[in-house]
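Pasting as-is:
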Amino acid sequence: MALLELRRRGSTFLFVVVVVAHIVLISAQVTSKSGLPLLQEVTFGLVAQVQRAGAAVSDGLVSGWHGYVDLRGVRERNAQLQRDLDAAKIRLQQERAAAARSEELAQLLDLKSRTNFATAAAEVLAGSATPEFRTITIGKGKADGLKPDMAVVSPNGVVGRVILPSAGAAKVQLLVDRNAAAGALIERSRSQGIAVGAGTSLLRLDFASDTADIRVGDTVVTSGIDGIYPKGFVIGKVIQADRAGGSYRGIQIQPAVDFASLESVLVVLTPPAADQTPSIEDAAAAAAAATPPPAPRPAAKPVTAVPARPGVPQGAPAPSTPPKPQPKPQPAPPTGGGR
């Protein structure tokens, strides 16, 4: 059966080949209207279509390749432009930082020129690692003349005081530390108090008089009574001043200094007592010089020694001499006629 099926298929294929061969021979002998053989014209048309399809595919491939190459070039250019933009942004940030730094240094220089104290500029090296103790580390120390309890200020106001100087650095206790305090003065009403750190970002004003005039928005400055901070430096502004029963309760102060953004500070090398407040000895000497001397007392009369008498102990006071009796007046003789 398989052999018969194979023979039948072979006969069909052979028949098709013979038919196609006859058609080709007939087409080769038949001419078209253009005078060319029909077979040649049909063959040329088929070949032309194949060439057209090949050209289209080739053009598509070439165009795609060029597009891919151009796209890679565009991507590379875009990447380069992005790198240039990033570099420009970095340079802009550096220039802004340099401008801000220059402005800060200019403010420090202006503050240094306006103060009558010897000061030393220092950079902030680090901040406190624990929020309970608000301190910073500056890049000046004992070698630069720093000592404990020296005031540290900035162009915006009071920063704190030096508590631990070393050879090349020093630790500064910020004014907002819970163990920090400074003599304070209300700039408007001249009311006094003590600005005390609370361990947070705010300060409180303690020991204010019940008759003091304190309002929200008042500027608080240093009073200089503590002997550490020079008088007149800004501490902050009053943001809360509650008064109940005639007494102040909860006077809150917003510090003028942003302690989180400090980069440079000034350390006051001259103690305020040496420039503003006279010492106790000087005050006593000035008071003594201003007091007039007491008037001299009259000299006592010398006492004449009285010789001793018999019967009177030595050193006893002399008896006083009794006054002499005055003579009594005599009655006048009677006057009368004779017998």
